[in-house]
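In this supplementary section we document a worked example of the pipeline. Step one takes a protein sequence of length 259 as its only input; no multiple sequence alignment statistics are reported here. Step two produces a three-dimensional model, which step three serialises into structure tokens for compact storage. The input and output of this example are shown verbatim.
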Amino acid sequence: MINFWKYQGAGNDFIMIDDRENTFDITDHEKVAFLCHRRFGVGGDGLILIRLKEGYDFEMVYFNADGHLGSMCGNGGRCAVRFAHTLGLFDTDTSFWAADGAHEATLDDQKTVHLKMNPPGEIENNSDHYFMDTGSPHYVRFEKDITNFDAVAEGKDVRYNDRFAKEGTNVNFAEVTGEQALSVRTYERGVEDETYACGTGVTACAIAANIELGMQSPIEIKVLGGILGVGFQKVSEGNYTDIILSGPATPVFKAEIDA
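The serialised model returned by step three reads:
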């Protein structure tokens, strides 16, 4: 029997497992995919193991819904922080290890998680889109109206084009809704569908908005599952630091499953 929690961060939902004894087989991709399946399993955009790591409060091991180990997940990271707090691994401030290295985070009195994201490397500024890695690869394109927009079809076209078909990319469509506000929809690789939110995706969109429009930090970003915030410091052109992703991370239920 597998004991687990279900968490969601702005509608991005995850299966959370306390694996501090390292009993979960991370090579069993079929089991992870089954657990994430919304018809036959628990259902989730991903699965996260909390493990111990020397020098840190914990390690976050993240799997995409297709069962394979994934890159950094921002909303998953925020949910991992809230879950690790539930497990008693820290009080208000924490440091943990993820696929893209070390992270720091704070859990405030309102149970909002403020997660420090690693800065992107090279930022591509192309004629109609941006491309950068904010812990996961992200394509960002600005649109006039994303409410009446087929984000799945458009996202799939980009994700499976000649450039990205092999390794995949996450695809974001952003609309300017205010002086310091965006609305974003994201098609995620590994899920191969639109999700209700994507933390690394809104981070990429905020940076792109600063480059494209001069939009200043902090930026409020509406996603299908709620509101997220991204703050940052611009050091120089294309160079960003102190990137903070803020938003809710909420426990939904806990249960066990025979898998």
